[in-house]
Design goal:
542 residues; 5-stranded antiparallel beta sheet; 23% helix
C-alpha cells in the first residue's frame, strides 16, 4: 500500500482523493507501523488534566452551524469504508463483534497463564504508601515484575475483582490492556529487596523502606479468615513507558499518531463501553503509552490500564451514587440545589443499591446510557456521533449472557450472590445500550448478495427490540471517480438490477435503504468482481 493510500485509510471518510474505493486493498487493516526513534517521556499532571477538561474545551469540536446552514459534523476517522475501526496494533484490534470469540478466549483476555510464580519468595522492589491502600512492586522467582494492588479494608474483593474483570472486558472489546491476576498469599511470601524506596502517589522518591514499614502497611490490607491477603498482580507490560495519551490531539514524536484522538472511533465509542461497565474514571491518567519492540519493529503502543475503579468501585472506597451520573462539578444541578434549599434531587440520587461490599455501588434500573457521565468531560466522548455509538453498541451486544458470566467469574468473588447480581446488572445494562443506540440509526449489518438478492441483518429484529420492519430499496450506478450516483430505471426492491448483473468487473453500484424514518438510511456500495459482487462500503445517515 502506498503512503497516500495509508493516509486515506487512517482518515476516512475518504476526503484526500476523488476516488472513494480502491481496488488493491479493502482498507480493513494497516501495514506495519512506521518505526519510531526518539520518544519523549511525558508525565501528565492529574490536576492539570482535571481543570483543563472541566473548564476548557481541548481538542477540535464539531463546528457550530452558521445561521440558516445545516449542521456539519466531523466524521469519525481511523475507520474503513464499512465503518469499522481498522486493525492497528498500536491502538485497536478487532475482536468481539468482528469475529467469533470462544469463552476460553474471552476468559484468557490479554493473558492468564503468567501469574507470579509461587515457587520462592516475592521480592519487594518498590512500594507506595501514600493514599488509603498501599501497593508493591515485586519480582518473582523467575525474574518477572508485577504490581500488587489491594482492596480497601471496608470493601474486600471489590477493586481487585474489578481490575481483573475490566482487563478482560476491554481486551475483548479491542483495546490493549495489562495482564491482571487474582493472587492470595501471606506476608511471609514477601521479602524485602535491597534499597527499596518508598514512592508517593505522584511517583516521587521518599526514603528507604524497612521491615517495620512493611508490617505497618500490611495492617491497611484486608485478610481472609486464614490470614491470607488477596491482591491483583498486574504483570509489567513489555514496553518502555513514555507517559499517557490524552483524549485529544496527537503525539508529535510518534509518526504513526496522525489522527486527532478526539476523532478516533475507538476512543469516541469508548464512551459506550465505559457507560456499560461504569468506568467513570476513564481519563488520561488511566492510559499508558509505551514503546513496544518486536522483531526489529519499534512503535508506540497505547494501553488502557487500571480498572480498579469500575463496576461500582472507586478503588480505595465504594463509588457514590453520583459517580457515573454527574461530573465532579456542574453549574445547573448546583444552582438547582441552592434554589430549592436542598429539596430538589436529581434522578440518580433516588437509585437503590443492593449492599454487597465486593460490588460497591452499581445498579441497572436507573441506568440511561445517554445520561451517563465520566468524572469530568472527555473530548473524544463529547465528539461521539450516533454512528460511533452504534459501532460500540454492536460490540456490547455481541457479549452473550454466558460470556458476561464467564468473565465476571474471573473476579473470584467469595460471595456467589455478588457474582450473580453483577452478571444480572451487566446483562440488563447491555440490553439497555442496544435498545438506546440501535434506535438512533437504521441498524443494518451483514450485507451480501445471495441468489440475486440483497440480503442484510436488522439488529433490532435480531435482538427482539422490534417485531417487524418494512424496507424501501433504490438502486443506482455509482461513479467511483466522481462519487456521483445515477438512478437505475426500475431499480427498486431487493433484487439486483439486471444492468448490474450484466456489468463488467470493476463496476460499482449502490443500494439505498430506507425504513420507517426517512432520515435514517443505509447506502450499501457494491463492486462487481469476476465471481460476483462484494460489499465495499456503507454510508449511514441519521
Amino acid at each position: 500500500m502506498t503512503k497516500k493510500i495509508l493516509l486515506i485509510a487512517l482518515a476516512l471518510p475518504l476526503a484526500l482523493s476523488a476516488q472513494k474505493f480502491y481496488d488493491d486493498d479493502p482498507l480493513r487493516e494497516l501495514p506495519a507501523p512506521l518505526r519510531v526513534e526518539e520518544v519523549e517521556v511525558r508525565k501528565l499532571n492529574d490536576y492539570y488534566d482535571l481543570f483543563e477538561n472541566m473548564f476548557a474545551d481541548p481538542g477540535e469540536e464539531h463546528p457550530e452551524p452558521k445561521t440558516g446552514e445545516p449542521r456539519r459534523y466531523i466524521s469519525a476517522q481511523a475507520i474503513d469504508t464499512l465503518g469499522e475501526v481498522i486493525n492497528d496494533p498500536a491502538w485497536f484490534v478487532n475482536r468481539i463483534g468482528s469475529r467469533e470469540m470462544s469463552l476460553e478466549e474471552l476468559v484468557r483476555g490479554p493473558g492468564n497463564d503468567r501469574p507470579p510464580s509461587t515457587n520462592g519468595k516475592w521480592q519487594i522492589v518498590g512500594a507506595k504508601h501514600a493514599g488509603v491502600t498501599p501497593g508493591f512492586r515485586i519480582k518473582d522467582s523467575t525474574g518477572q515484575f508485577y504490581l500488587l494492588k489491594f482492596d480497601p479494608l471496608k470493601n474486600p474483593e471489590m477493586s481487585t475483582g474489578a481490575d481483573v474483570i475490566g482487563a478482560r472486558f476491554f481486551h475483548a472489546l479491542g483495546y490493549s490492556t495489562p495482564e491482571n491476576y487474582i493472587v492470595n498469599f501471606t506476608v511471609d511470601q514477601l521479602e524485602m529487596g535491597e534499597n527499596v524506596i518508598f514512592w508517593d502517589a505522584e511517583g516521587v522518591k521518599e526514603r528507604q523502606m524497612t521491615n517495620p514499614d512493611l508490617a505497618n502497611m500490611s495492617d491497611k490490607i484486608p485478610r481472609d479468615r486464614d490470614g491470607r491477603i488477596r491482591a491483583t498482580a498486574s504483570r509489567f507490560l513489555s514496553v518502555r513507558p513514555v507517559g499517557e495519551f490524552r483524549y485529544y490531539g496527537t503525539r508529535s514524536d510518534d509518526p504513526n499518531d496522525i489522527v486527532p484522538h478526539e476523532h478516533r472511533r475507538d476512543l469516541r465509542g469508548l464512551f459506550v463501553f465505559a457507560a456499560w461497565l461504569n468506568h467513570n474514571d476513564s481519563r488520561a491518567i488511566n492510559n499508558l503509552d509505551g514503546v513496544f519492540e518486536q522483531d526489529g519493529l519499534r512503535y508506540v503502543k497505547h494501553y488502557l490500564i487500571d480498572f480498579g475503579a469500575i463496576l461500582g468501585s472507586a478503588s480505595v472506597l465504594s463509588n457514590s451514587a453520583r459517580d457515573g451520573n454527574a461530573y465532579f462539578w456542574e453549574f445547573k444541578p448546583t444552582l438547582a440545589q441552592i434554589a430549592s434549599v436542598g429539596l430538589w434531587s436529581p434522578r440518580w440520587a433516588r437509585a437503590r443499591f443492593v449492599k454487597k461490599p465486593a460490588l460497591g455501588m452499581i445498579e441497572h434500573p436507573t441506568f440511561e446510557p445517554e445520561l451517563w457521565k465520566p468524572n469530568y468531560p472527555n473530548p473524544a466522548f463529547q465528539n461521539r456521533l450516533p454512528d460511533d455509538e452504534y459501532w460500540a453498541a454492536k460490540k456490547v451486544m455481541a457479549f452473550s449472557d454466558e460470556a458476561i458470566a464467564a468473565i465476571i467469574n474471573e473476579g473470584q468473588f467469595s460471595d456467589s450472590a455478588a457474582t450473580e447480581l453483577l452478571t444480572d446488572y451487566l446483562i440488563k445494562r447491555r440490553d439497555r445500550i442496544g435498545e438506546v443506540y440501535f434506535a438512533k440509526v437504521l441498524p443494518l449489518e451483514s450485507f451480501r448478495i445471495e441468489a440475486g438478492q440483497l440480503k442484510f441483518e436488522d439488529l433490532q429484529l435480531k435482538h427482539g427490540l422490534i417485531d417487524s420492519r418494512d424496507y424501501s430499496i433504490s438502486w443506482s450506478r455509482f461513479d467511483n471517480a466522481s462519487e456521483q450516483h445515477a438512478a437505475i430505471n426500475g431499480g427498486e426492491g431487493s433484487a439486483l438490477p439486471e444492468v448490474a448483473a450484466k456489468s463488467p468487473a470493476g463496476a460499482y453500484f449502490a443500494a439505498k435503504i430506507v425504513a420507517d424514518d426517512p432520515a435514517k438510511t443505509v447506502t450499501a456500495y457494491l463492486r462487481k468482481t469476476s465471481v460476483g459482487f462484494e460489499i465495499v462500503g456503507l454510508d449511514r445517515t441519521w
